């Protein structure tokens, strides 16, 4: 007996859904099946590291699990992170480079004229353009946290 089952993950209220189905053959014989469906993310995103120096560089690694090309938009809440662009196309995997540049002048302009600040905390927000998969599922934003820390010898 071969049974194809389609589960629409957009209708899941939790990360995992369970149900039981009964399949009855033409002969009248019935079979009870337990079905478990797991909702997977459409994509994952992570930083190559979570702590950066005042003059550093890094990458965001993105893996696309949706089976279709997505366009991600990347924004940092810190002016010290610079990306080459805002939108990136991701088929299966992408590596998005960025640079970290914190200068004495920028610290002075931000209200730290004596350069006493040793760490800057921030977030990178990643969202998908359109924010829906082909099945109509809303793709949530991802937020990655980071710290920009002054090297110990400069403190």
Would you mind describing this structure in some detail?
The structure is a single chain. The model has no long low-confidence stretch (mean pLDDT 78). The protein is mainly beta and 155 residues long. The protein has one helix spanning 104-109, and strands spanning 16-24, 30-38, 43-47, 51-52, 55-64, 70-76, 81-83, 87-90, 93-101, 119-128, 142-149. The protein has a five-stranded mixed beta sheet, with no helix packed on it. Strands 3-5-9-7 form a four-stranded antiparallel beta sheet, with no helix packed on it. Strands 1-2 form a two-stranded antiparallel ribbon.
Could you list some keywords that capture this structure?
about 160 residues; five-stranded mixed beta sheet; four-stranded antiparallel beta sheet
The ordered string of helix (H) and strand (E) elements is EEEEEEEEEHEE
Helix proportion: under 10%
Largest sheet: 5 strands, mixed
Count of alpha/pi helices: 1
Question: Using DSSP, what is the number of strands?
Answer: 11
Order of strands, main sheet, comes to 4-11-10-6-8
Structural class: mainly beta
End-to-end distance: 70 Å
What portion of the residues fall into strands of 2 or more residues?
Answer: over 45%
Q: Give the overall silhouette.
A: elongated
Low-confidence stretches: none
Average pLDDT reading: 78
């Amino acid at each position: 007996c071969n049974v194809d089952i389609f589960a629409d993950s957009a209708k899941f209220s939790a990360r995992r859904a369970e149900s039981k189905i009964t399949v009855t053959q033409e002969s009248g014989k019935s079979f009870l099946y337990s079905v478990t469906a797991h909702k997977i993310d459409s994509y994952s995103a992570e930083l190559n590291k979570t702590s950066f120096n005042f003059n550093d560089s890094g990458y965001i690694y993105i893996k696309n699990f949706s089976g279709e090309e997505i366009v991600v938009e990347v924004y940092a809440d810190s002016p010290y992170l610079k990306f080459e662009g805002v939108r990136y196309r991701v088929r299966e995997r992408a590596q998005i480079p960025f640079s970290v540049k914190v200068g004495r002048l920028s610290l002075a302009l931000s209200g730290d004229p004596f350069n006493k600040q040793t760490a800057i905390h921030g977030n990178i927000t990643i969202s998908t353009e359109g924010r829906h998969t082909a099945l109509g599922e809303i793709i949530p934003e991802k937020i990655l946290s980071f710290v920009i820390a002054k090297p110990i010898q400069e403190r």
